[in-house]
């Protein structure tokens, strides 16, 4: 029995790994043999694999064009395999233990365009008007209330760059329509001020005319149909309906509105420090991801518009 056969049995019996996981591990280990040992038939001399061989594997995977996440997955498989053999006394050390993972880079956040946000906000009242016409709304009053509330919530999230949890957590006493701001409790219960632009102020005033709940400072601002605090999950479920009604991608989420807020501000010339404060980020580096989005958008516009871009 080869060491690979023994490892397969261990994964199945002791680790209770799935068939797919075992197949992936074996495939990755066999790829090491193919790339570093030139596919040597019946190779089982694992004691002779050293750190240089481990680094060579990474180099050849890079040269073959493997993406970074795939390389890291294969390194993880090799670490697990050698960890098992080290435990069994087959090898004296794990040559992959100190091979660092390939830096994958942080994915750029996807953002909505301004026109897409306009489509989304326009779809909310249309959706509920259709619900009244089709008889799927429990009552006209409830449909009007839900439309006003969700439109106000969308505008508040986008205007202030809020997380959906922060938005549904707003209390009545946090809202200052005269000062065009709202107090927000972010991560770690840290407070900051969210700014309310004209559309958000108008949407909130329209919603407050229909809101029937208590107005004491600690009362939730955004209510469900039972008069208690609206949950993030309920709003996310409604948002999917509005996206479908607007013909927008279904993977847009409330957090995309926050990403869009930051990117649109930077596109318009806002300074990074101000955007950091508005988002409630402790570290400027967290906010800097949005500058990369803006640069990518700038490059895209350049390529479309400049006569010598290609």
Could you name the key traits of this structure?
2 domains; 58% helix; mainly alpha; 3-stranded antiparallel beta sheet; hpI Integrase, Chain A; 3 strands; DNA polymerase, domain 1
Structure description:
This protein is mainly α and 310 residues long. It has two domains: 85 residues, DNA polymerase, domain 1 (Orthogonal Bundle), CATH 1.10.150; 192 residues, hpI Integrase, Chain A (Orthogonal Bundle), CATH 1.10.443.10. Helix content is 58%, strand content 4%. The chain is built from twelve helices and three strands. The protein has a three-stranded antiparallel β-sheet, covered by helices on one side. A hairpin with a 4-residue loop joins strand 1 and strand 2. The model has no long low-confidence stretch (mean pLDDT 88).
Topology at a glance:
Blueprint lengths: L2 H11 L5 H18 L14 H13 L4 H20 L26 H21 L5 H21 L3 H5 L6 E2 L4 E5 L5 E5 L2 H13 L21 H15 L7 H14 L4 H8 L4 H22 L5
Antiparallel strand pairs: 1-2, 2-3
CATH class of the largest domain: Mainly Alpha
Number of continuous helical runs: 12
Strand order of the largest sheet: 1-2-3
Main sheet makeup:
3 strands, antiparallel
Instruction: Give the amount of beta strand, in percent.
Output: under 5%
By CATH, the superfamily of the largest domain comes out as Intergrase catalytic core
Work out the oligomeric state of the chains in this entry: single chain
Average pLDDT over all residues:
88
Distance linking N and C termini: 59 Å
Gyration radius over CA: 27 Å
> Which structural class should the secondary elements be placed in?
mainly alpha
Percent in helix: 55-70%
Shape assignment:
elongated
Shape-level CATH architecture of the largest domain: Orthogonal Bundle
Number of domains: 2
**How many E-type strands?**
3
- Name the poorly predicted regions: none
Task: Using the coordinates shown, work out and report the CATH topology of the largest domain.
Answer: hpI Integrase, Chain A
Series of H and E elements: HHHHHHHEEEHHHHH
């Amino acid at each position: 029995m080869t060491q690979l056969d023994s490892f397969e049995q261990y994964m199945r019996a002791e680790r209770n790994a799935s068939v797919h996981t075992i197949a992936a591990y074996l495939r990755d280990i066999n790829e090491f043999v193919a790339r570093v040992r030139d596919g040597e038939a019946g190779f089982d001399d694992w004691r002779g694999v050293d750190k240089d061989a481990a680094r060579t594997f990474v180099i050849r995977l890079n040269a073959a064009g493997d993406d970074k996440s795939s390389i890291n997955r294969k390194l993880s498989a090799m670490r697990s395999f050698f960890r098992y053999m080290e435990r069994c006394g087959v090898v004296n050390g794990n040559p992959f233990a100190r091979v660092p993972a390939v830096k994958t880079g942080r994915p750029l956040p996807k953002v909505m365009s301004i026109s897409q946000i306009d489509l989304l906000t326009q779809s909310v009242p249309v959706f509920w008007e259709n619900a009244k016409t089709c008889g799927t709304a429990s009552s006209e009053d409830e449909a009007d209330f839900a439309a006003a509330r969700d439109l106000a919530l969308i505008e508040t999230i986008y205007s202030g760059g809020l997380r959906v949890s922060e938005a549904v957590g707003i209390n009545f006493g946090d809202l200052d329509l005269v000062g065009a701001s709202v107090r927000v409790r972010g991560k770690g219960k840290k407070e900051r001020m969210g700014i309310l632009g004209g559309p958000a102020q108008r949407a909130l005033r329209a919603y407050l005319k229909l809101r029937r709940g208590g107005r004491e400072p600690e009362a939730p601002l955004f209510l469900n149909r039972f008069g208690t605090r609206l949950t993030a999950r309920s709003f996310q479920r409604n948002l999917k309906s509005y996206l479908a009604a607007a013909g927008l991608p279904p993977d847009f989420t409330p957090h995309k509105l926050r990403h869009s807020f930051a990117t649109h501000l930077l596109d318009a010339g806002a300074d990074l420090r101000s955007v950091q404060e508005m988002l409630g980020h402790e570290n400027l580096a967290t906010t800097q991801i949005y500058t990369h989005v803006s640069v990518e958008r700038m490059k895209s516009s350049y390529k479309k518009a400049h006569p010598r871009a290609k």
